[in-house]
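Practice problem: predict the structure.
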Amino acid sequence: MSDHITDSQRAPEPVGPYPHARRAGDYIFLSGVGPRSRGTREIPGVTLSDEGNIVDYCIETQCRSCFENVQNVVEDSGARWDEVVDVAVYLTDMKKDFAAFNRVYEEYFGEIRPCRTTVEVGALPTPIAVELKVIVYAPRG
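Answer:
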């Protein structure tokens, strides 16, 4: 089994001791990826208080940033976006954000139609409202 770790220079830095992605044979497993911006503390679509708590956020802006970050990791891992086969979605407010998330998800995955699980979580490691964990099937000869 081939094994390769990807640390994307385009996606936000991981918040812990793990890579952006790891290839295992024909599969690439991405670590959780959120909407943060690389090299800054900026989180697109999020307004924070001086204490670092979320004051307000735009889920659609966060989703677009999150999908762009995931696309960067997928591509930097040597795969294509249409090779994504499974998406795990973590939302901090399912009632408020699910419909908007689905609209943006359709923009990015409409034709591809990977499997998906969406769960609500009490919090994520940084002050964000969405995070994705993706599996890619990318066989290479």
